[in-house]
Each structure stands twice: as C-alpha cells, then as structure tokens.
Specification:
Elements (H helix, E strand, L loop, with lengths): L2 E5 L7 H13 L2 E7 L4 E6 L5 E7 L5 H9 L3 E6 L2 E7 L15 H32 L3 H40 L1
Antiparallel strand pairs: 1-3, 2-3, 4-6, 5-6
Helix pairs in contact: 3-4
Length: about 180
C-alpha cells in the first residue's frame, strides 16, 4: 500500500494536535500530498521517513506579501482555503532544537486565536436570526423542539471553543510575561 487517505476530525482550537499528528505521519514515512474537505481529509504517499514541521495559520486578510514572506523563509504552502493555511518545512532529525516555528512570538499565536474567536462569534451571531426564523415558521412543536436542541448544541460547542481559545491565550500571556521578565 503506497497511498492512504485518512479522515481526521479536529477543531480549530486544537491545531497543534493535528500538526503533531501530521508530523508523526511524516516520521513514519507517510508524506502528505493533499488536503481536502476543509482540512479533514488527508492523502499520504509512502516514502522514507522525514522530519517536517507543519503549522496551521488562520488569516482573515492576506496581502500579497503573506505567501512570499513564508516562502522566503523556506516554508512550503500545502493548503490554502477558507482563510486556513497549512505550511511545512523540513529540519534535521538529529537537531530537534532547530524545529522551525512560523510564529515569531507568543503574541502572534494570541492574534491568530483572536481571529478564530471573531469568526466563531460572527457565525454564532448569524445563526441566531436563522434559529428565530425556523422557530417562527415551523408549525409543529416537535420539530421546533428538535431545531432548538440542535442549535443549543451548536451554541454550546461554540462557547466551548471560545473558552478553549481564551484559556490558551491566558496561558500564552502568562508564558509571554515570564519570558519578558
């Protein structure tokens, strides 16, 4: 078997987990060649093991220099769609201290998390009028109840994601303060 396709569910607030998983695949000789279905389907080709760093970035507004900046630093763009970007860069396996980082400082990660939070809030706010419209238009109380339950679950998931991102930002801010002292 020289090819494999893997469906891997992950949340935007857990990008480090999926990055490490892809890096582990590379270490086992599975080279990422394609990403599809909104960053959930990964296609790999078997080869020799490599030490690669993968990093997801979320950008709302990308200027002309964005891609060039990372390419000049030796990063290869693997995926770009719906404001998500996946970058990779190789580094020596015997020198883990040279593992490259796309973010130059903790504040950049916090800014990325804040961009994701704004998107979650926007989508959540857009869903409120849709929920109200569905509740008003639907005559059967059983269906209205089902719709309400589904929307409540979605809102709980959004709140959970916002909480995870806020917690991560607080942890990073503490780390940033300790580095500055």
């Amino acid at each position: 078997m020289n090819n494999k396709k893997v469906f891997r569910w992950w949340w935007s607030w857990e990008s480090e987990k999926i990055e490490k998983w892809i890096e582990a695949q590379e270490g086992q000789g599975w080279h990422l060649v394609k990403v599809k279905s909104n960053l959930m389907r990964f296609q790999f080709v078997k080869g020799s093991p490599r030490t690669m760093r993968y990093v997801f970035d979320y950008q709302n507004n990308v200027d002309i220099d964005y891609k060039q900046l990372y390419e000049d630093a030796g990063w290869e763009q693997v995926y770009a769609k719906d404001n998500w970007y996946l970058w990779r860069k190789s580094y020596p396996a015997d020198q883990p201290e040279l593992r490259p980082e796309i973010y130059s400082d903790v504040d950049s990660i916090i800014q990325r998390n804040n961009r994701i939070k704004k998107t979650l809030i926007t989508v959540g706010l857009v869903l409120i009028p849709i929920l109200i419209m569905n509740m008003v238009v639907q005559p059967m109380w059983q269906i209205r109840t089902s719709i309400l339950v589904v929307y409540l679950l979605i809102f709980i998931l959004f709140l959970y994601g916002l909480n995870r991102l806020a917690t991560q930002n607080r942890r990073l801010q503490g780390k940033s303060k300790s580095l500055k002292n």
